[in-house]
Design a protein that fits this description.
Layout: H1 2-41, E1 47-49, E2 56-58
Length: 63
């Protein structure tokens, strides 16, 4: 029984690490694409509209 629990913990940990890796890779790829588009157009940043105030601001890296 202890072996089964250990295997389940290892499988779950591997799955969680894989999902985290994929998520980070997607974020990095999007950040790279955004930087490339900004470089091509000569832009300094990407503007997004704040839904609360209606004002535009620079997009943060966390978004």
């Amino acid at each position: 029984m202890a072996q089964l629990i250990t295997i389940l913990v290892l499988v779950f940990s591997a799955w969680w690490l894989y999902r985290r890796f994929v998520s980070d890779a997607r974020k990095l790829a999007e950040k790279s694409r955004r930087a490339e588009r900004e470089r091509q157009t000569g832009a300094i940043g990407t503007l997004v509209k704040d839904p609360v105030t209606g004002e535009y601001r620079l997009k943060r890296d966390e978004e």
